[in-house]
């Protein structure tokens, strides 16, 4: 596809369940970012990959959050033992090598009950 | 650390009129990029316009233009001939230049275009 895709678009989880959110970046984009967007707020940075290397994970809110990009393309954000405060939209973005402009996917809305 | 401030949580404009959204930022760096993104209810974050800090000329994309005041650390977005499809949340964002870096976003301005 031409753009960044994310799946699922919506996810409802019971508190304590594990969830996995998928991101397919634009083909050939080296850089991949994950952001968390709370209701009515701007997105906040979670983590950044360059190819398969996770170069920055300073925004991950706790050790329950884990991200991977094993082959340098598709990425998965995993949240273990979900809590209500994890409810948010999770956005994925990608950019070309050394480029400044990021292109976003449609996001996954996670609701933890 | 850099911060981005959008002081207008909500704005409205009549169709075909002009509206300006405000954004200020704070950084000690000299080389950086600024962006305006649009997020309609579908949640897809769409790039509206970008500005390199080293360029004095204000960026323009069709009906969208910016007023970049580097000394004042101000980056406002002007939308001319507003259309119903412009209704969305608008975010101002900042990143340092160089290798790919994370974006820092403001809290957003909800713009409603009235028929």
Structure description:
The complex is a heterodimer of chains A (113) and B (115). Chain A has 113 residues and is an all-beta fold. In chain A, 36% of the residues are buried. Chain A is 0% helix and 49% strand. Chain B is mostly beta strands. Chains A and B meet through strand 4, strand 5, strand 9 and strand 10 of A and strand 5, strand 6, strand 10 and strand 11 of B.
What tags apply to this protein structure?
heterodimer; A: 113 residues; mainly beta; seven-stranded mixed sheet; four-stranded antiparallel sheet; 11 strands; 0% helix; 49% strand; globular; B: 115 residues; six-stranded mixed sheet
What would a concise description of this structure say?
Chain A has 113 residues and is mainly beta.
Helical content band of chain B: under 10%
Q: In this structure, how is the largest beta sheet of chain B organized?
A: 6 strands, mixed
Number of strands of chain B: 12
Poorly predicted residue ranges of chain A: none
Number of helices of chain B: 0
How many strand segments of chain A? 11
Mean pLDDT of chain A: 94
Order of helix and strand elements from N to C terminus of chain A: EEEEEEEEEEE
| Most extensive contact | A-B, 30 and 26 residues
Supply Rg of chain B: 14 Å
* End-to-end distance of chain A: 33 Å
SSE inventory with pairings:
The complex is a heterodimer of chains A (113) and B (115).
Chain A: E1 5-7, E2 10-13, E3 19-24, E4 31-37, E5 44-50, E6 53-56, E7 65-68, E8 75-79, E9 88-95, E10 103-104, E11 108-112
Parallel strand pairs in A: 2-11
Antiparallel strand pairs in A: 1-3, 3-8, 4-5, 4-9, 5-6, 7-8, 9-10, 9-11
Chain B: E1 3-5, E2 10-14, E3 19-21, E4 24-26, E5 32-39, E6 46-52, E7 60-61, E8 64-69, E9 74-79, E10 88-96, E11 104-105, E12 109-114
Parallel strand pairs in B: 2-12
Antiparallel strand pairs in B: 1-4, 3-9, 5-6, 5-10, 7-8, 8-9, 10-11, 10-12
């Amino acid at each position: 596809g031409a753009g960044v895709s994310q799946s699922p678009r919506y996810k409802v989880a019971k508190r304590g369940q594990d969830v996995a959110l998928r991101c397919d970046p634009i083909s050939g984009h080296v850089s991949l970012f994950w952001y968390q967007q709370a209701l009515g707020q701007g997105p906040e940075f979670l983590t950044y990959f360059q190819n398969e290397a996770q170069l920055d994970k300073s925004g991950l809110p706790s050790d329950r959050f884990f991200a991977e990009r094993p082959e340098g393309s598709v990425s998965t954000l995993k949240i273990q033992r979900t809590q209500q405060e994890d409810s948010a939209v999770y956005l994925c973005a990608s950019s070309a090598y050394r480029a400044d402009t990021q292109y976003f996917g449609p996001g996954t809305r996670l609701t933890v009950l | 650390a850099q911060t981005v401030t959008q002081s207008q949580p909500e704005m409205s404009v009549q169709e075909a009129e002009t509206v300006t959204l405000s954004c200020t930022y704070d950084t000690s760096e000299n080389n950086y990029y600024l962006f305006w993104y649009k997020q309609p209810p579908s949640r897809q974050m769409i790039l509206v316009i970008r500005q390199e800090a080293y360029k004095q000329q204000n960026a323009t994309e069709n009906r969208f233009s910016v007023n970049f005041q580097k000394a004042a650390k101000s980056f406002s977005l002007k939308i001319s001939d507003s259309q119903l499809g412009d209704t969305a949340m608008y975010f101002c964002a900042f990143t340092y230049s160089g290798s790919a870096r994370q974006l820092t976003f403001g809290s957003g301005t909800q713009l409603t275009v009235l028929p």
